[in-house]
Amino acid sequence: MRTDPVPSHTGCVTDPTSRALKLLSLLGHRPVWPGPVLAAELGVTPRTLRRDVDRLRNLGYTVDAEPGQGGGYALRRGQALPALSLDEDEALAVNVALAAAAGYLTDAHAGQRALAKIDAVLPPAARARAQETRAATDLSGAGMAVDSAILAACADGTRRRRRLRFSYVDRRGRHSERWVEPHQVSCRGQVWYLAAYDVAREAWRSFRLDRMAEVRVGDWVFRRRPDAAEALERTLDPVPLEAYEHEVVLHVRCPIESAPDFMTWDGAILRELEPGLCEYVTGTDDPEEAASWLTGIEYEFTVIENPEVREALAELGERLLRAAGGARREV
């Protein structure tokens, strides 16, 4: 992979080889480029552009040219391109995206290896900028980690319209085997979901990828169901609070406009009781899990409901206090 050379002050790339790489990159971004627009993008004359196009053709690339209004230059599809060409801003975007993706995958080292390979071929200035940006950006809470193999299998089944088989554990801890027609993979809040038609249950369902295992892409090709669009809209609806085993009610000491975004996710209720005091209502199936994420709330809060969550939070507090050697901070 190469990064594009820095243009001169006139906006053109003066080195013919570097300009050819830039031209190849631009041709890959659009199906057709009008000649004057492409010449202006490169900062060269139409005559120089024609020479650069001929240079690509001599290298074995098929560049079609259609004269007249509505015509232009087009790189014929299906050709092998040289090492990926990125400018400095594009390289930075890829760096940030890979760093964020590492938070979504159980194999975070895959993203780190990719970042190391990109860093190795960046010019010193671009590499320093990318590394400084990563160091200054906290992406540790980007999302719940998901197995990359499960994500890839779900995406593959969705793309090729192949039925999937997998083991699943629902929010009550019940295990089941599923046979589904996958239609959409999405990330909402911090969780990855698969929207699919459950063949055995003859109903649309939404499955959390972190609760799936042994995902297998089958050979059965399915047709998109007539009600798919409407059903996919429904799967985006938040889980109703009554679906959870435990309702959790907190009083949080913060202005409602400063409340964390997650307090409005997945059907939760957030309302202002008085200036500086909010009531937050949500649900959970696991009091210990709820106690864990409640410690991430940066404001003072009181658990109003329920007793199981309050007890789990107290036990977690005692564990943390023991971990700190029993030390209590003076107030």
Describe it.
By secondary structure, the chain is of the alpha+beta class. The protein folds into 4 domains: 2-75, Orthogonal Bundle (Arc Repressor Mutant, subunit A), CATH 1.10.10; 87-136; 156-235, SH3 type barrels (Roll); 242-323, Alpha-Beta Plaits, CATH 3.30.70. The protein is 36% helix and 25% strand. The protein has 10 helices and 13 strands. The strands form 4 sheets. Strands 8-7-6-5-9 form a 5-stranded antiparallel sheet, with helices on both faces. A 4-stranded antiparallel sheet has the order 11-12-10-13. Strands 1-4 form a two-stranded parallel sheet. Helix 4 runs parallel beside helix 6 (124-136). The longest helix has 17 residues, at 307-323. It is extended, with a radius of gyration of 27 Å.
Q: Could you please say which CATH topology of the largest domain applies here?
A: Alpha-Beta Plaits
Radius of gyration from the alpha-carbon trace, in angstroms: 27 Å
Global outline:
extended
CATH architecture of the largest domain: 2-Layer Sandwich
Helical element count?
10
Tell me the strand percentage band: 25-35%
Number of domains: 4
Strand order of the largest sheet: 8-7-6-5-9
Main sheet specs: 5 strands, antiparallel
Structural class: alpha+beta
- The level of helicity is 25-40%
Low-confidence stretches: 1-11
Mean pLDDT: 79
State the separation between the terminal residues, measured CA to CA.
Answer: 56 Å
Number of strands: 13
Query: What string gives the helices and strands in order?
Result: EHHHEEEHHHHEEEEEHEEEHEH
Provide the CATH top-level class of the largest domain: Alpha Beta
